[in-house]
Each structure stands twice: as structure tokens, then as C-alpha cells.
Design brief:
5-stranded antiparallel sheet; globular; mainly beta
Length: about 350
């Protein structure tokens, strides 16, 4: 499992178009029910279009399958033997996500302002509204809280009518499972809960509950070189810009990610393609990551891998496409000092690394 830190990512790993036959075969082989039998039980079902995404709810035989071309979602409660269409406004299912911290919850996103969520593995669905907004085209539309699955951030865009290029990014939030939705902050470039993984703890229960970190535009400029971090523990009624390097703030932030017990931010160095990494293990004190002197980190040339609770794994591309290779670096316990671990790692042009923890 890999996580890239890059600007405007084509994030739809979850919605890669899968070959219909291989998708259904995967459903059968992954089926918990099939695993209990001496021989695999093979069933078939014909869909009108190739599935774009599917997933099991953890510890169950319930599967949701998304047909993006038809705008439909199908549900099976017997590990793929039989299927029913999900009862939402037909033809409007543009994207589908599960909550990684709650095996009862999933979300269907449309291209408009009305979307749907389930709290019972897709048996029933309720709609919710993001006023005058549509899901962001630049990043994953939802960000989750590891402790409280009712808390969700929604990355959206508000566009002027007729102005395809006249849009601004706005992040909304809910604290009660979409009973109410409110605006978090305008002109964001991606937000996360600090407590986005079970491993990450700030050391303060109040901060664990509500601390949010956003990449946002500059105070007086939309220039990406001025993008900065903004942090709030009360859903941006108040906010602060953290010091990332000693006693100074840093501009040029392009993205943030939570990796086990760490939050990692990437910043573009002025007038170069090099990046700097900043790391925190408590969402308050940040340090610049230090790599060996002969290692340079370039934009779109490194991947933060699934890490441990006591170190961060980063693969840095050292051989350019079409046959890219990299070097794997491992950090110390607070994520600041990296040493070379493995040379000549295998990776593809999309930054996906052949890595298993």
C-alpha cells in the first residue's frame, strides 16, 4: 500500500477501471464464504458495464460495486452470488467510498451537490447536501476521523455558473454523520484530521477529537508558491500557521498525509524542482526531514510507503522512466533522520512501489 505526496494527484486509485472478468473473479477468490469450502464456488452475473470500483465491508460478505459509466451502485450480501441495484437517484453515482474506520459506513458521491451515505452496509441510504458545491476534482472528496466515524471532511468546489475555470475549493465538515454539514474553510488545497489513523495521537484528547490541518492559499496571494499550512482545533473558528522549520513558517506546501503515527508535509523549494519534507508526531512540533547529502528529493519523484508505528518508509526515484527504480529510506523514531535501506527498488511511472510490509 502506497501513499504519494504530490500536487493535484490523479487520486482515483480506488476507481481504476477494472476488467469485468478479473473483477468478478477477484470477488470470488476474495470471498470469505468461498474460503470456508473445500472447492471454490463459482457464480456469474452479467453487468451492463465494467465495474470501476468494488469493495467488501470488513468481516462480512457484503460487497458494493460501482458502475461509473451507468452511474449505478450494486450491492451483494452473499459475496457476489446475487446483486441488487442500490436505491438512490438512478444514474448519478459518480464515485463510491468506504469509511476505513467503520465497517458499516460508505458513501456515494454525485457530480452535483446531493450525495448519499449508509450506516448499515448499504441496506439503506440517506441523502445529504453540500450547498452549491460539487466534489473536488483535484483530490479525494472525503477525509475521515479514526476515532469518531461520524466526523468527515468533504473537499468540494464552488463554481460560478458558466465559469468552468472560475471555481474555488472549499472544505466542508460534519460532526454527526451528515445530519448537519457546515463550511470548514475556503481556498483549501486539502485537509486532514490529525487523528486520521488509529496510531496518531497528539497527546491531548481535545486535539485528538477536533484538530484539523489544511493546506491553504497564501494570505494575500493564490500563487502556489505561497501555499501554507493552517491548523485549528475548533473547525477554523480560530486558526494558526505552525512553524515548520525552527521558529519560522514555510510556504510552498503542496500536500500533507498521515502515515501511521506521523503527519508528513511536502514543500516545494523556490525556483527548483526539489522538495523538502516536514514531519510531526504530535501535530504541534514539526521538524524538517534530513536525508543523506547525496540524496535529492524531487517533485513527483518520491512515494511515502505504508510504514511502521516507529518509522517512516520513503522510496525516492533514482532512475527515470520508462524503467524507473528507486532507493528505499527509513527514518528514525521521530521521523526526521533518514538512512538508506535498500537500493534499486522496483517502481512504475505512477510512483507505485513494489513493496510489502
Amino acid at each position: 500500500m502506497t501513499s504519494r505526496i504530490e500536487e493535484n494527484p490523479n487520486y482515483h486509485v480506488a476507481t481504476e477501471v477494472l476488467d469485468k472478468a478479473s473483477s468478478l473473479a477477484a470477488l470470488l477468490w476474495l470471498s470469505p464464504a468461498a474460503a470456508k469450502k473445500d472447492k471454490p464456488e463459482i457464480s456469474s452475473h452479467r453487468f451492463d458495464n465494467a465495474p470501476s470500483n468494488f469493495f467488501y465491508f470488513d468481516d462480512s460478505n457484503v460487497v458494493l460495486l460501482h458502475d461509473r459509466e451507468g452511474g449505478l451502485v450494486h450491492r451483494s450480501d452473499d459475496a457476489g452470488k446475487s446483486w441488487d441495484k442500490v436505491d438512490i437517484d438512478g444514474g448519478k453515482a459518480w464515485d463510491m467510498w468506504r469509511n476505513p474506520h467503520d465497517n458499516q459506513k460508505a458513501y456515494i458521491m454525485s457530480k452535483g451537490s446531493t450525495h448519499w451515505h449508509t450506516d448499515d452496509q448499504g441496506k439503506t441510504w440517506k441523502d445529504f447536501e453540500i450547498p452549491k458545491a460539487r466534489p473536488s476534482l483535484f483530490r479525494a472528496p472525503l477525509a475521515f476521523h479514526a476515532k469518531d466515524s461520524n466526523k468527515v471532511l468533504i473537499h468540494s468546489e464552488i463554481c460560478r455558473i458558466g465559469g468552468l475555470m472560475d471555481c474555488r475549493e472549499v472544505t466542508f465538515y460534519t460532526k454527526d454523520g451528515f445530519e448537519k454539514v457546515a463550511k470548514l474553510k475556503e481556498n483549501t488545497r486539502g485537509c486532514i484530521f490529525a487523528h486520521a489513523t488509529p496510531e496518531f495521537k497528539t497527546g491531548d484528547n481535545d486535539k485528538d477529537d477536533d484538530r484539523v490541518i489544511c493546506v491553504t492559499t497564501g494570505r494575500i496571494s493564490f500563487d502556489r508558491r505561497q501555499h501554507r499550512l493552517a491548523v485549528s482545533s475548533n473547525f477554523f473558528h480560530d486558526e494558526e500557521e505552525p512553524n515548520l522549520e525552527g521558529d519560522r513558517t514555510v510556504q510552498g506546501i503542496i500536500n500533507i498525509a498521515v502515515v501511521k503515527g506521523y503527519i508528513v508535509a511536502a514543500a516545494r523549494a523556490p525556483n527548483t524542482d526539489e522538495l523538502a519534507m516536514y514531519v510531526t508526531d504530535d501535530a504541534s512540533t514539526w521538524h524538517r526531514a534530513v536525508f543523506p547529502s547525496d540524496s535529492r528529493i524531487k517533485e513527483d519523484a518520491y512515494t511515502v510507503l505504508e510504514s511502521t508505528s516507529y518509522s517512516i518508509e520513503v522510496d525516492v526515484m533514482t532512475v527515470d522512466p520508462p524503467n524507473p527504480m528507486g532507493v528505499l529510506f527509513t527514518s528514525n523514531s521521530n521521523g526526521t533522520y533518514f538512512t538508506k535501506n535498500i537500493a534499486h527498488t522496483n517502481r512504475n511511472v505512477n510512483g507505485i512501489v513494489d513493496f510489502e510490509k
